[in-house]
Every structure is written in C-alpha cells, then in structure tokens.
Model the fold of this input.
Amino acid sequence: MRDLKTLKELVASVTDWKSLEKMSCKPFKPSILHLAISQDAPHLYSEEQLIQLKKLSKLLSSAESKPNTNKTDKRVTKKRQIEERPKEERVMPATIKKPRKIILEQNGPSPDLPPRRIILEHSGPSPDLPMQFKNRVAELSGHDLKYLMHKRLFWSDVKPNNNRLSMPINEIMCEFLTQAEIEKLDERNGSNGKGRLVGLELTVLDPCLREFTLPLKKWSMQRTDTYNLVTDWNSIVSTNEFEEGQELQIWSFRIDNKLYLLLNKL
Done:
C-alpha cells in the first residue's frame, strides 16, 4: 500500500496520459500496478490502454473464481479408467508377500490327546551348501538333503552344564522326520510311559565333516516345542571351539533310512 501511495503522489502532478507516457522509458504493458492506479486516476491512461487494463481485470477475476480441479479431475479420470477395465486387467496396489506357512500335525504324547499342530514358515529359497559338504553326502550315498534352519548360538547352547543344542520347531523350515521318528520322539522309559524321553539316535557331521553319534530329543516348552541334540553335544562344541554368537546352517539328509544332520559354520 505504501508503494501505491508513493506512486500516486509522484504522478499527482501529471494531468494526462501523454505526459505520463513521456516519463516512461518503456512501452506500456498492462500490469496489476497499472490496474490499481487506473481505478483512481483513469485520466493517466489512453483509451487503448484502459481497454487493455479492462481485459486484464476480467482475466484475473476469471482465474480467481475458477476452482483448481485439475488434480481432482485427473484422479477421477484414472479411477474411472481402472474401473472400466476387466477385473483380470486391473492393477492392484503392491503388497508385501508374507512367508509361506506349512501346517504340520504331530501325534500327541498319548492316543487320548489330539495331534499337535505345528506351523512352519518358509521365507524363501534354501541357501547354497558348500561343495565339500555336497561331495561328502554323495560319497556316503546320501539323499533327501534338506535345509532346516539358520542357528545363532546362544550362551545356553555352548554352556558346558547344559550340554545341548536347541532347535525351536517353529524356526525349522521344513519337516524332516518320518512319522515313525515323530512317534519315537514321544516315547518315554518305564511301563507307565511317564519316565524319561527315549530320543532318536542320529549322526551329526560337524563343519570339518567329522561324525558324532548322539540322540535327538523333543522338549515341550512354554512357547514352542524344541528339538535338542543332547548327551555328547559338548564334544562337538569343544572340538569345533564353538562360541556364543557364532552362526550355523543346519541341514539333514539320509543314508538309507538313517537320519543325519550336517552343521555348516558361517
């Protein structure tokens, strides 16, 4: 407002548009400033200039009154185009693929109890097994090679007093036991079936392909059942100098019908 007032004071002595035109060093170009001055001092402009300013005024009024519907119109048009397509051609929003779930059933500890449902999640393809392990499996005439899990060793897995490797069932990627082996893991000593778990004897190949024979047992925990390698697990820990935080890949394979586990140290 101060600039407009100052300008009006400067041109107050000008009596007609010709005098104003002489003061200007540039040709006339309609602008908002000229439009404001012309409202109070139309005598400072020629008839042709006033016509140009009138057109500018109409143009500005039209732009202010017109709603900004450009973006809305584009969204509506795009939505209509999608709705008009056949269902099979419509592009759906991108979704995150969830891991594939495998639901298994294991027999309960007694015939009177219903089978236990175990949900395994497979998040992707199995990692590659180093060639020296594949060659050893081939030398032993092994078959049915399966990737079971990625295992980070906790303090409880290497603590000598525990003497066991824990493998939570809900972290194992696939079923690797036969029905007979599943039933074997539920067997207990004693005539009343309330003694200690018998376990399933198997062979473990350590990262240096040395063989150890030890039992696999299934323990029922609060959150999930776990498979545990017990009894001689400390020998594998000490021989390989396993420490807390080290990572293993655990694989299974079979020679005839006998179960083997393979430990690949990462």
